[in-house]
Write a structure and sequence with these properties.
Bound molecules: alpha-D-galactopyranose
Distance between the termini: 17 Å
CATH architecture of the domain at 3-206 and 386-396: 2-Layer Sandwich
Order of helices and strands: HEEEEEHEHHHEEEHHHHHEEHEE
Structural class: alpha+beta
């Protein structure tokens, strides 16, 4: 069953009535600019046609409990505005892992002075978890727009995204950048999103004609990501602190040119140097790539995606053998312009730019060869680029 029907049906069964609203928030795929959002760089994501769905209504009159059923797990949690302050549920037990996402969003919204109405909700998602497609940001954004609809207030999508990011940073404890929440909040159907992660200015760019975006899921799920992810971020911060002595004007690695980096990189510990080199070169690559995209030079753009994978594999060290295998096979197939891992890494998916007429054969061949090589069952799909998070009154269904 599609997750939209699943949440509506589960809601009806549990509450014996129709929900008032349905919230939808997409996952994302990132074409270029990986691990640069928290270094003030540029990213090029797109919202995808996989999403988190929340069927919801206000709680019964007089109740201050938000009751949320995670239909994918068959588990329910209930919390109040005051219980979430200490990460406990309404019965005083610690919030389970998935409950920290909606609770964290409520906490961040409340902290910004926005009204949180208690809700009855059922949610589910068809974004695989731990696969690099931002399943957690989509849960955050789905609840953010849900609370906005229930509270009758509205703020610009980017501000909502920043509050969702705050929930993930300060409540869940992953020190992520803004890319995922931004893409889920601000996605535009059939368009790529170009975000300057420092100024937060963004624009959309067309998807090149005759090009399909293909997501290839290795089926390997990441583990221990938050500690590895936070460690990468720390290495970048350390690099800035050290480089600042010679380059006092810099605020983030985005401000360091490749030439300056080469002059001073010997002052960095070896590991920090590798991490920072990825970022400095990736910022430079993404600027070049954006120009190429605007000039319609798709072959060259794809080439830069390939270079990005090498850098993520060898310098940032966030790839795994299965992702490398998926990328190598893809790059050897007809019609593939570029392939690389997408998202944080350590498992999950690759993103591939493929000439449309060759895309079916590409997908079939990639799946077959990857299975033979790894004994795993991958999932390959052609992605439709979608709109960002929204709430639909269910009476309009
Ligand atoms: C995760 C984070 C993002 C970004 C990517 C890597 O998806 O949530 O903020 O840092 O990793 O580019």
């Amino acid at each position: 069953m599609h997750p939209k029907d699943f949440v509506l049906e589960t809601y009806r069964q549990r509450y014996g009535k129709e929900p008032t609203y349905l919230a939808i928030a997409p996952g994302r795929v990132n074409l270029l600019g990986e691990h640069v959002d928290y270094n003030d760089g540029f990213v090029l994501p797109a919202a995808i046609d996989r999403a988190t769905y929340v069927a919801f209504s206000g709680a019964e009159p007089g109740s201050d409990h938000s009751t949320i059923l995670a239909a994918d797990f068959g588990e329910v949690t209930s919390f109040t505005e005051s219980s979430i302050e200490t990460k406990i549920d309404a019965n005083g037990a610690p919030l389970c892992e998935w409950a920290r996402y909606p609770a964290g969003v409520a906490w961040a919204l409340k902290g910004a002075g926005l009204a949180i109405q208690p809700m009855q909700a059922v949610f589910a998602s068809d974004i695989p978890r731990g696969a690099g497609l931002s399943s957690s940001s989509s849960v955050e954004m789905a609840f953010a727009v849900a609370w906005s609809a229930l509270g009758g207030w509205s703020i610009p999508p980017m501000e909502l995204a920043l509050l969702a990011q705050r929930a993930e940073n300060k409540y869940v404890g992953v020190n992520c950048g803004i890319m995922d929440q931004f893409a889920s909040a601000c996605g535009v159907a059939d368009r790529l999103l170009l975000l300057d992660c420092r100024s937060l200015e963004w624009q959309t760019l067309p998807i090149p004609e005759n090009i399909a975006i293909v997501i290839a899921d290795t089926s390997v799920r990441r583990k221990l990501t938050s500690s590895e992810y936070n460690a990468r971020r720390q290495a970048c911060e350390e690099a800035v602190t050290i480089l600042k002595k010679d380059l006092p004007g810099i605020r983030a690695l985005r401000d360091v040119s490749v030439a300056d980096f080469n002059r001073f990189c010997h002052k960095l510990p070896k590991m920090v140097e590798k991490r920072a080199r990825h970022v400095v070169e990736e910022v430079e690559r993404s600027l070049r790539a954006i120009q190429l995209l605007q000039q319609g030079e798709i072959q060259a753009f794809g080439q830069i995606m390939n270079e990005c994978h090498v850098s993520l594999r060898d310098l940032y060290e966030v790839s795994i053998p299965e992702l490398n295998a998926m990328v190598e096979i893809a790059q050897s197939l007809p019609g593939c312009l570029g392939a690389r891992l997408t998202g944080a890494g350590f498992g999950g998916c690759t993103v591939n730019l493929v000439e449309k007429p060759k895309v079916q054969a590409f997908a079939a061949e990639l799946a077959a060869r990857f299975s033979i090589k790894t004994n795993l069952k991958p999932e390959i799909y052609i992605c439709r680029v979608s709109d960002g998070a929204q709430v639909i009154p269910t009476s309009l269904h």
